[in-house]
Amino acid sequence: MTSPPAASPHVAPQADHADKARTTVQRIADLRAWLFLAFLILAFEIWSRISFGGTFLFNPFNIQSIAVFAVAPLLLATGQTFVIISGGIDLSLGFIMGLAAVVAAHVINWLTPGVGFFPAVLIGSAVAIAVAAIPGFINGLLVALLKVPPFIGTLGMFGVARGVAFLLAGGTTVPVKNEAFAALGNGRIYGVPYIVIVTAVFVLIMHYLLSQTKFGQHNYAIGANAQAARRAGINIKWHLLRLYILSGMCAGLAGVLYSARFSAGAAQAGEPLLLDAVAAVVIGGASLFGGSGTILGTVAGAFVIAVIQYGLVFINVAPFWQFISVGVVIIISVLIDQAQRRFSGGRQSE
Amino acid sequence: MNDVIPMGEPLLEVRHLSKNFGPVQALSDLTMMVRAGEVVALAGDNGAGKTTLIKAISGVYQPSSGEILLKGRPVSFSSPQEARDIGIETIYQDLALADNLTIGANIFLGREPMRRAFGFLPVLDRAKMAEAAKSTMALLDFHVSRLDAPVSNFSGGQRQAVAIGRAVYWNAQILIMDEPTAALGVPEQRKVIQLIHQLKAQGRGVIFISHNLQDIFAVADRIVVLRRGVQAGERRIAETTHDEVVRLMVGG
After folding, report:
1. How far is the alpha carbon of A92 from chain B, nearest alpha carbon, in Å?
2. pLDDT of A226-246, one tens digit each?
3. Under a CB-based contact definition with an 8 Å cutoff, are residues A274 and A198 in contact?
4. What residues of B are in contact with residue A8 (Cβ under 8 Å)?
5. How many C-alpha atoms does A177 have within 13 Å on its Cβ side?
6. Can you give the pTM of this predicted structure?
7. What ipTM does the predicted assembly reach?
8. CA nearest to B27, candidates B59, B55, B60, B69
9. B101 and chain A: CB distance < 8 Å anywhere?
């Protein structure tokens, strides 16, 4: 007969069972965005087969369109995931994206005659992402050093970035004349759009950064208990500064890919995407109170929104239903988050 | 730093320590000692100087005068980090834990171990963190099976054990515990008292601040009573009573 080694004398066995049940529920709740996504795809597939006798999911054109559609919101949501886990929020991302799109367009236009197509794209993209880091840096200064609440500090930067982007664009969209840039935005390899590949690689790197490095670990700790993080010797100011620079640069990449896709930079490029990005993060399982969330959850969240938006158009439903559906999904996600919080956090109030 | 001090030898000595904030004398000419394997309780009313004393010992405040000796060598710190580096760890009342992280991640918070995945990619060494969590908690006689669960899943006493476990893992010689039982239910308080006995048996020194005389009498070897920044008395627990301690605290 074997007995469990070194069973704790303090813990009653039924407590262990309750713990296991709790962990299982947590795991399921953590996967809720992927479950949502599977459910949505299934629903559209059934609807599509019944009303058109055709497939929704197995149509490569649909998959491609949804992926391209998800690129910009997903990139914004990736940066936003880091910020929300730290207990903050970055409202300026949409216009940082617009700013980067305009800067990329201008710089590539200036450079193309002198250095040629490819170098102009490389340098222009790098400059645009570097410029996007500047409002991120200022956000970081405001939040980390001047203790401005992130909501207010980044709301201010929302206005500043918006104004600067429109000024640089001269109030209009800036067309880009560069074939290589257009190829980046619209080309494919084996049917996979380049911008989807770039986004996938970038998101994977961000997943690594959040889940496998000290930076990511400290981000979770700061979001849960900033004082504990400080006492453990984590330099919170330095962390927050880098954090907001990082989220600005995510928006910068989104701006570059946007102007590549449309061969034009527009200040309002990210305007409708900011709240979609926040929604993707929340649907993906992050808590707006900070301390929880994952990049993989956010990926699912971004695709939930993209599938709803694209799918409703595909099955020919009036586009206004998109807003209602996305809104309902956000509310359900938050309700699940709160139920999970009550369930797993119950011990703390004892 | 890791030289073992035999039980009963002086570990921490505070000599003629004073601290004033402008004209306010928060602590004056205080002398006390903690031996290896000894629990010293600090008692006193609010404003008696307990907090000032532990903040001076743990590097938060610089003393105005006087000296602190660790294992016979004078030490001074410009930050809590420096105090921690030489083995003086403070366990805060409100538990300095990140609730969303595992026990291992909390033990290593701010000093995470890394390994190389695929031979080149630096990643957090979660296996090492879990292993350290397991062995450290076992050292404190807490056997936890769920090393991948966030500490929010554990009870108050278990979380207190995690905070203590972190100090123990980093080889703290002196543990300063500020009201470690204040936020806990009675069974959990008992567990923490057990933990302090464990620390004692391992030859560490513990400074234990509490308002609860019952806890003090259950765990401490000596009690130092402060009143208005001066030492009002020092007694061996075996040779004193609740009444005498209360008299020392309130004066008269």
Report:
1. 27
2. 988 988 889 999 999 999 999
3. no
4. 142-145
5. 5
6. 0.86
7. 0.81
8. B55
9. yes
